From TrEMBL:
Residue ranges that the Swiss-Prot or TrEMBL entry lists as coiled coil: none
BP term (GO), one: GDP-mannose biosynthetic process
GO terms assigned for molecular function: isomerase activity; mannose-1-phosphate guanylyltransferase (GTP) activity
Record's keyword annotation contains Nucleotidyltransferase: yes
Chain ranges of the MannoseP isomerase/GMP-like beta-helix domain: 292-327
UniProt keyword terms in alphabetical order: Isomerase, Nucleotidyltransferase, Transferase
Name the record gives this protein: Mannose-1-phosphate guanylyltransferase (GDP) /mannose-6-phosphate isomerase, type 2
Residue span, Nucleotidyl transferase domain: 4-266
Organism ancestry: Bacteria, Bacillati, Bacillota, Bacilli, Bacillales
Amino acid sequence: MKLVLLSGGSGKRLWPLSNDARSKQFLKVLNNKANENESMIQRVWSQLKAVHLSESSLIATNGSQVDMIQNQVGLDVPLIVEPARRDTFPAVALSATYLFSVMEANLNEVVAILPVDPFVDREFFQRVKDLELLLRQSDANLALLGITPTYPSEKYGYMVPEPEESNKWIRINSFYEKPKKQLAETLIEKNALWNSGVFAFKLGYLLTLLEEKGFPIEYQEMLKKYADLPKISFDYEVVEQEEQIAALSYDGYWKDLGTWNTLTEEMGIQKIGKGILHHNCDNTHLINELDIPVTVIGVSDVIVAASPDGILVADKKQSPHIKDLVQTFEMAPRYEERSWGSYKVLDDTLAEDGQTVVTKKFKINAGGLWEQQLSPSRSEVWTIISGKGELILNKEVIDLEAGTVLELPQHSLLTLRASTNMMLISTQKLSSEIKAEEAIQEYESPMKIANYQ
């Protein structure tokens, strides 16, 4: 059995900590048994290791998340990298071709697909294993894992079983996506299950389906044709069109930490970062990624979150509306983590001459290697704040230490190697044809991006 974890997301629902470059699964806001902050993806990967499933697991993601995944889970985790952001059907299709033509998996191999960020107990993954047996014992083409509902939620999809059920599995009759409360109550009376987003199939089944739809089954060809795949979920494109579907139920602990109110219920700590959360605040959480303190007094049932991307103060029950509001923002992420470290935008200013000046703080990890080439429209001034390293600037080797100031002209080819943890301030000056939002993003070496594929 192969497990493919889907790591995507637009980073809107947990704004301002999440953004296009840092989706919710990477936020280190959960508290583990060692009293350390960990992310959702770190928690899930440790659970997979505990039940001996990590060796057969892969993560499907996009290029912008590769560094974050490797930083948090490890460099040896197998990755399937999408050439463009699409939806779950293209991601699953690409994963299937990778398993077939790169890993040379057997057509009878069972493939389980699951989100990278469920908040569950280890027993959940044991139940995922049972999907393989279900596919082999039944005539089903798809096997789903449903969650026994605990209340009539309007946030989840529902799977309605056939009236006559097997003692071993459930035959699925129909699906309802996020019904209103009254309908949800009726569905629960019919023994409907929440859709967990976990499903399994035999590899040959999906490859045949791709061929019928006119798509390639070889990985390299799929990469070339990826933009031609419909931008649609696997549920809509495949699951709801399939007649032979069976499911298993799971009645253990399961929660989608997709909103601030559900996430804070599982955080374990009420304050992260610099600031004061007064004792008269009931069920209020403060998460601060800024270097300035935030003080919260006399408010209850509130989330206060601050990052370089913005500040949120919201009633927890109203926090799910943040996704719709953030859609109106047109701004690039002002904080990103990369393989070599991280950076945050301190300031961006449009000068009178039309040029944009962007100031960033970079943190480079000891041993980190950072390569880039400045465009013809960009020059920089670096000030080394702390640490030591070496810069190769257009084949000239320059030693770096605290206090070093460098001017980097346009077209410069840079390779920075940090011998210790380093911090530097970069003031970037960009010509008038470069938009401020484009200037804020820090682009990787084209060679590195090519190597992802």
